[in-house]
Specification:
Elements: H1 9-22, E1 26-30, H2 35-44, E2 49-53, H3 63-73, E3 77-80, H4 87-92, H5 94-115, E4 118-124, H6 147-160, E5 166-171, E6 174-175, H7 182-191, E7 196-199, E8 203-204, E9 207-208, H8 209-221, E10 226-229, E11 236-237, H9 238-248, E12 256-259, H10 279-285, H11 292-302, H12 304-310
Parallel strand pairs: 1-2, 1-3, 3-4, 4-5, 5-10, 6-9, 7-12
Antiparallel strand pairs: 8-11
Helix pairs in contact: 2-8, 3-5, 5-6
């Protein structure tokens, strides 16, 4: 758990030092080509020396290779966007999920400690069991319902115990231009001509990867350390999210039919309520990410691929 402490003069001086050094440093991003990594690279590339590593460049399950690459590059920070995110497949491929999401994160954190680099780990709302009735805070008890959530939680712990300086960012329901996601799924189902049966009893906060990348940058510029919840503001169900996608695209929202999770059986259990409290992020950065509907509207308007799919 993370305690939020008032900043002492010594802490404030250390944070200011971090800010001063940030613009002059190299940033390593793992998982290059993935949905989040692509937007991180885009947001950071105008100001920083970026080293973007795909799996063929760096397999994070290889501890020795992680150490070799990170020490050689000597970055200010490593932003770990490499992950096994297929939630249902994680139930079948448990060893792979743990190797990538848990051990891989630990390998990078170990390398960061040796290189004196900041470790930025991306985690998930699925570390919680969804039984809450208010947005989850960073210090709330974790109890993942599925292998994916458990693997990401172990990754958090390996990072926190590594001895490296770290930022762990829990986020939720990601979508963006550069990868498979729920928005793409809704368009594909719509184009298939059938009704869209979408669960309406799971609630969270859809988050645009371009906005999350800006949130990561804001935390780093603020000299933040510890665990933070970072999502677009507002909440909805998957059903509400699907209707908004079609509504903002000028499509027929009546094609979306609400169903319960019990009617839509999947290998991995999902939390019913996984809204994250962003107050600590706001305290550090003096900002929030915009509302999820505003972010979605911008994404649909500006993304040519989405426009093509909507036609």
């Amino acid at each position: 758990m993370v305690a939020v402490q008032a900043r002492s003069p010594r802490m404030t001086k250390a944070i200011e030092s971090r800010k001063m050094h940030l613009d002059r440093k190299k940033i390593v991003v793992t998982g290059a080509g993935g949905m989040l990594a692509a937007d991180v690279a885009k947001v950071f590339s105008g100001s920083f020396n970026m080293v973007c590593l795909a799996r063929e460049d760096l397999d994070i399950t290889d501890r020795a290779r992680c150490l070799d690459v990170v020490v050689r590059e000597a970055p200010f920070a490593v932003i770990n966007c490499a992950a096994f995110t297929k939630v249902d497949l994680c139930e079948k491929e448990q060893e792979l999920a743990m190797a990538v999401n848990a051990n891989g994160a630990g390998n990078l954190a170990h390398a960061c400690r040796r290189a004196g680099a900041l470790m930025v780990q991306i985690s998930t709302d699925y570390v919680f069991d969804g039984r809450g009735r208010r947005p989850y805070r960073e210090a709330d008890a974790t109890a993942p319902l599925n292998v994916y959530g458990l693997s990401k939680l172990r990754g958090e712990r390996y990072v926190a115990e590594s001895g490296a300086e770290f930022i762990i960012i829990r986020t939720s329901w990601l979508y963006g231009e550069h990868g498979p996601n729920f928005v793409f799924t809704v368009f594909n189902l719509y184009r298939g001509g059938k009704e869209l049966r979408i669960v309406d009893d799971q609630v969270g906060s859809p988050t645009y990867t371009a906005d999350l990348a800006l949130g990561i940058l804001s935390l780093m510029r603020a000299g933040a350390r510890g665990i933070f919840h970072v999502t677009n503001q507002g909440i909805c169900s998957w059903y509400g999210f699907a209707r908004a996608i079609l509504e903002l695209s000028g499509m027929d929202t009546d094609r979306v039919v609400p169903v319960s999770s019990g009617e839509f059986k999947r290998p991995a259990r999902r939390p019913a309520y996984s809204v994250l409290d962003n107050s600590r992020f706001h305290e550090e950065t003096r900002t929030y990410l915009r509302h999820w509907r505003d972010a979605l509207g911008c994404f649909l308007k500006e993304n040519p691929l989405q426009k093509a799919m909507a036609e």
